[in-house]
Amino acid sequence: MMDQGTHRPVNPQIYGWKDGGFATPRPSKKSNKCLVYFLTLVVILSILMLIFALAILRRVQAPRVVLNYVSMPNLSKINASTPSLNGTLVAEIDITNNNLGCFVYADSSIAFLYQNVTVGAANVTGGRVFARETGRVNVTARARPTNLLKESRNFSRDVGSGLLELRSYAEFVGRVHVVRIFKLRTSKLMNCTMTLHLASKAIQHLECL
Fold first, then answer.
1. Which of 205 and 17 is assigned the larger pLDDT?
2. Which of 74, 112, 158, 197 has the fewest CB atoms nearer than 10 Å to its CB?
3. Residue 134 pairs with which residues in a beta bridge?
4. How far apart are CA 95 and CA 103, in angstroms?
């Protein structure tokens, strides 16, 4: 029978005891392997994302901008003696974004011209077109009389024929957002031609480059 004051010796291997005190537990080999696998996976994913982003950046292109529809329903009567163009031009602009990122464009303007004379203009509010989608913008331009039409030699002749050749210009400047990190600046100049039929007040032969 052991005395009450007698104690069994402590096994240092069980309690991690060393001469200087308790030993620091060593991390297991399994934990080290998990950490290595995790860091390797992070590096591989980062490289793949970088390659993917660079591939998209190389394929970024300017959007396609065209006039989808133009009308002039309240055109005032025009005669050769008083050369003027008075009415409202109603137009629809289609912006097609074929990129894999969102296209965000700033405020712009659209102008309608007869030869080199501006006969109507309107502001275009900035907006965005999502990836692989087409956005539509409605604009209304007021065509007002201008004395510059009197200086045109062909205006009276075209009025007599009942057909007016018009052009329209608009420039859209913006940025394509790729992977929410890269923002690539791009722009597109819209250039359209059309024929205004004075008798029916209809727009014919609408073509855009």
1. 205
2. 74
3. 96
4. 10
CA distance 77 to 86: 8
> What percentage of the chain's residues is helix, strand, coil (to nearest 5)?
20, 45, 30
Query: Letter for the amino acid at 175?
Result: R
In whole angstroms, give the CA distance from residue 166 to residue 174.
27
Please enumerate in sequence order all residues whose Cβ is within 8 A of that of 179, keeping only pairs 6 or more positions apart, or say none. Answer: 49, 52, 53, 56, 101
Q: Residue 4: its pLDDT value, please?
A: 56
Q: Which amino acid is at 76?
A: S
- CB count in 10 Å sphere of residue 66: 18
Q: What is each CA distance from 90 to 22, 36, 49, 50, 138, in whole angstroms?
A: 86, 64, 45, 45, 8
Prediction pTM value: 0.72
User: Is the pLDDT assigned to residue 20 strictly greater than 60?
Assistant: no
Mean pLDDT confidence for 110-130: 94
Q: What are phi and psi of 92, to 5 degrees?
A: -120, 125
Q: Residue 201, Cβ neighbours under 10 Å: how many?
A: 14
Q: Does the pLDDT value for residue 156 go beyond 60?
A: yes
Quickly tell me which residue has 């007002």 as its tokens.
144
| Whole-angstrom distance, CA of residue 126 vs CA of residue 115 | 28
Express each pLDDT in 30-41 by its tens digit: 677 788 888 899
Token output for 14: 């069980």
